[in-house]
Amino acid sequence: MMSQLSITVLFCSWISFCLALTTSIDCESAIAVVNLPADIESVSGVKIYHSNTWWSAAYTCPSTCLYEVSACVFRSCTCRCDGPSLQNSAEVPQPVVQAPENCTGVNLVVVIPSRYTLSRVHVTHDASSGLTSSVYTCPEACSGSQQCPTVAPCECECVAANDTIYDAEAPGWSHVAASTYAAIGTSGTSFDVLATSGALPPSMMTTIELAGTTGVATSGTTGTTGDNAGACGGSCSPIPADGITLRLGTSTGTGFPEAANTSVAFARIRTFRTFSSLAPGTGSTFVQASVGGNACAGGVRLAATANFTTSAAPAAVIAAVLRTTSVYADYPVLSVAFALRDADGRPGVQRPSSVSLSGVAQSGGAGCPVSGIDPTTGVGRCDVVVAASEFGTAGGPTECTLTLSVMYGSVVTAATVVSATVVQRVTASALPSGTIGLLVSMPQSPRLPSEPFTVAATGSTGTNVLAFFQITIFFNSSLITYGGDSGVSSSLYTLKLGVTHASLPGQMSFVSVIGTAKDTGSGLIAGDGVPLLTATFAVAAGTAATVADSAFTATIVSFTDVANTNFVQVQPGKFSDARSGVQPSGRIEVWSPEAVGLLAYASTSELINTYGLDGRSASATVSARVVRRSACTAASGCRVDTDSVAVGATCSASGINNVAVLSGCQLTVGPTTAAGSAALNVTASLGALVAEPVPIRVWHPSAVTVSASTSTLHKIAGAHGVGCQPLYQSTALTVTATLSGERLPSISVDVTCLSTIVSSDPSVVAVSGATATGLSVGSAQVSVGLASATIEVSDAPVQPVCVSAALVADNTASITSSTVDASVSVSARYAKNAQAALMAEGAAGTVVAWAVFSDGSQQELTPADGLQIAPYAEFSTILDSSNVVQGQSTASYYRAFVKANAGNAAGGCALEASWIDACTNATLATGPIGANVSLPLAVAASVTISPSTPCGTGATCSLTRADDAATRLGRRSWAQLSLGVTFSGQAEPVSFTDDPRTLYTVTSGADLVSVTAGGLVAARNDTNGSGVAVVSVSFPTYARATSVQASISVRVDVVTGLHWTPTPYPAYAGSTALSKSMLQRVHCTSSFQRAVVGAAVRLSDGSSVDVSSHAFLQAVSRDSSIVSVPARSGSSGFVLVGTAAGVTNVTLSFGPNAVSSAAITVLDSSVTVTALQWTTSWQSASPATFAATVGTERATALAVTFSDATRFAEAVAGLPWLPPAAYLTFASDDPDRISISDAGRATILASSYRAPVALTAASMPCTVGPSSSPVSSTTEVYANLEPSVGDIDLGNRYGLPFSADSRTPPSVGQLLTVPMRLNLGSGGHLTFTSFNLNHSADWLR
To answer: For 1124-1140, b where at least 16 C-beta lie within 10 A, e where not — what string?
Structure first.
């Protein structure tokens, strides 16, 4: 039951009479509603005093808890209470009087609320004016107007026409400084609005300021001196407030204007409030602002828009489903899926401070992270670890009642209860002490399909030390899968031979494991419960729920002690599982991931039925997610971790008669529905699973009205339309609908843009969109459905008085937005007599204009109506107004641009707007348009190289001639300059690169570079010079930049030479430091040495560039019979090949300016071998071992040093032109084990059992050249055969096969551990093996 309390308090103002303030309190919903009368414009705070059971507190209302004028209906300011009861005391601060920001003319305007009067006004002057503060007496008639929507001003004279008023204060009232004045006491701020609980859907509110005081110039005020000198004079009325149009920028149906316009003197304010059905968190809608046009189309669209995101309300309802219906000691995590909704059923709730799960002792876990709550569906999850103390050690399961709570700060806003089963732990079973046997421990909790689990095997040995074991674990392969060899491990035993498994009859498989103790002296490998191993298995995918008591069996093949005695052979193992006592087999219980609950949510929780207006249906779809049973641990998470969409779910609904139509799970409002409702509950189900009902609100238009701004359209004197027929006035049409429903408030919204308005007599009144135009005398009904309004067309003429026009400068509008609840409020404002500020060449604005008639009415003019504009003489060289641009609809608008080289115009009447009759060409009315052209002076210029044409990394650009070889090195022959000019008061430079007023001049180095009028600088081809040129920039014909200059240095470099050096080939570490211009025979062979060329070109700046591998480099031998230069392959350098004794020149070139020759000498003498070094990489380096199957051949590696200090880093396989057999010999001291060929290739034939094999390389005798003796080098390597496929190998893999350290043969009495390896080949798999090991009793025992 709802309890209501009505409190009346008195608020007394300085005028000595009191205002009634009603505070309605809904104690159950804890909302205090403070209703503001029309007299109070704004409230900044409301103090509410509680009873003694609650503390007193002051609650600040949002700054937008303002009066709203809309058919004299005022909204309320709501403040939330903290308790169930309130004392009958509420205090509202004093209302606000606004002061306008402009008193530069003869009038000071003070705006006051209706029904109030002022007797005096206190004006504070600017201290610099020299005037003193004064109190002025207002006329008796200066009182608040009772008419809506405007509030009349009170006008009082200022002391001087050029005085600046900073503050205007009505005595006893609070005041605001004029500099902060904008729309209803705020400036450029976004407001917060709170809705009465359950009354309105969420939306947003935005403030728009159009142009400010420097963006829009209008005609209409007098006075041309003082601070207002240059303002454009005239007596025409200002542009109307509804000349500003504000629209939602998305498709219709997401929001509707809700409030009327508000007009304040010396400013034009347009307030736009929208009623929206957008879901919380939706941000696709934005607000556009235009000047001119109507509420639906037309006008000059301003660049600024405000995107907004609707806010979310706190969660008020929580639905929960337990994912882990039972928890176990080895699966201790409780997992709960939940869905949140606010008080109106919307799932996109405000993110809570916390969500908690209570009712069971906990020891950690992920908890309930609020960051994981889906902002669209409201679905989240809690995972908490149940403390070990909850499980105990015996007994049956325990039922726990859990509470899931949602908190904002310290306040619980939603809670629900779920129940879970805590299964108590079964006491682990063990073999009797002293018993010899095997025990395999199984999981005590159920497992899901595909879920892995671990079994642990322990051995009881009595008094024996278990040095070696072999066990076999059998499992039902129709239920269980093996987790792989990598899943088997042991802390005490080396499972050296790995793991095998195979299928057996009866759907059984086995795992056979052999283990050897890591430390036979350890006391841990004897007695009861010796840990043998752990192995991983998994429940087979697709397994149905079952309890398998014989899923596992086990057998001891053998237990062996340190004396190699088997103290157990072929004995069945025992099991410990969820059953009490030791069992002959192992049990596995399998769960299925069955569905345990549904969580439902709607795509939108608000439906607005606009079918009768636009013929469109609206729908909301209810979706559900299936929550499935799972099991969870803190370490590995939940086995079923993702809930799925409920495919095949059905829905039912209550209370939908005449409100909505349900098809499947889609709720639709349209042509067959004719009512609204606060809550249609839609329930989703899937089989036996039923979700919590999802509430959806439906708003229906209960009443529609059509209204016209002007009900009588007069003939316009002297104006003619099509065919020179008389021209009549036009008026804007508005369609309003009242949205309501059962238990819903009534909301009046503007649905003009949704509606199709028709005229009953189009020959009298023509309707186009939302505009009605008179065509002939008479009357007609304009209607939408059954709603209509009468418009009269009269021959009584009205005179065109003047044209009220404005120049809307580009990019002068600014829009800010905020995310709040309740209605959208958008305000737009422009000053009455400000100057449009055009601050740069090319700066532009669009002209909007209204004709003002003798009856005080106005209507917009466009070029299609005969509007023309032209600059006044003093602005003719500054502004160009000849362009006409397309607007937002079929109407066009004039544009005004600042010309190039324009001078300054401090402000004044820049353009004249004229209304020209299309038939007689007579001027019907005119009006001036103000503008302030203020072009700043250039203060700096900077010239750089365009990033698109880089020509160096430093401050100086480096170019080269187009025909120079330096272009082959990536040097450019040209570069594009980039020029920026910075003007006073501007942070960013303006590009002047291509401006015709820019003069580029080569002021130094004109013989090196040239530059075009567009700033393209290029190296000249008609000179061989190099050096630095300077390109300067100036603006001799640009009056605002004559004092600004800039310059940039550009280098021109060319290739001046080439240097090259021959070095030993093939190259090796350090070879480039050794010049090789003399080639000799290699150690008495017929082959000569070779050299590789290293080349670099020199540039005129002194730098060098390596071109050894450059494709443009050329090399030619004068006599190829002495030295040949083979063609290069790939990117390698040139190789010089000696072919016969003699001397010849080799010439290298890199273009015509880089040519170099050098003499290469070829001698018939020899360089001899002075050192040899083995560098072979064997299969093992320590000890060096040739390990391969019998008969394997491989190349060795040998480095050779010669008498001239040159080297071959790889002489065996690296020199196809010089085989090693030509000057080297190779030998083996045990060719029966490793043989080596003349080409240095080694072959393994048998294993080494006592010592390594010595391989020796030696140089052949050579008597030509320096006298030298043959040199040699020996390396030792062990031969160790690898087994062939299917063969077994005994002993170490590297070094000696039978040796404790792989190098020393065994001694008498030494105990040897002999590894044994089986080669299974590629892809081979060992399932079972049996072998005999024979040994000589004479040598081994």
So the answer is: bbeeeeeeebbbbbbbe
